[in-house]
Amino acid sequence: PWRGVAWFALLALPGAWLIGRAVRLGDPAALPTAALVLVCLQLLALPLASAISRRYEAEADYDALRLTQDRRSAEALYRRFVRTNLADPDPPWLVHVLLSTHPTLVERIATARAAALPAGPGSP
Fold this sequence. Notes:
This protein is mainly α. Helix content is 73%, strand content 0%.
């Protein structure tokens, strides 16, 4: 939880400084300029925010694998996601970098296969 707050502060403080430099505080006419600066900063921060989110989600996936000790079920779940989701299991690189908040399903399946864990119940 504290890491998310730290990342937000890291991005919000320079943004607030830029908005303060770009507009005169207290002037209602400055509101559109402040909104434009804020939107531009959010667009610039989008790849970083998405990367942080993907990292958290990848950690959660690995923790689930570690706790369940069941690679086979994890892979089966991700394969069901491929069949039932409308999302591309392996989206274009730029789309993934800019917009994806989770690892791709292809990455998740590869992680499940590569995990140094037993394959699942009844496996050697």
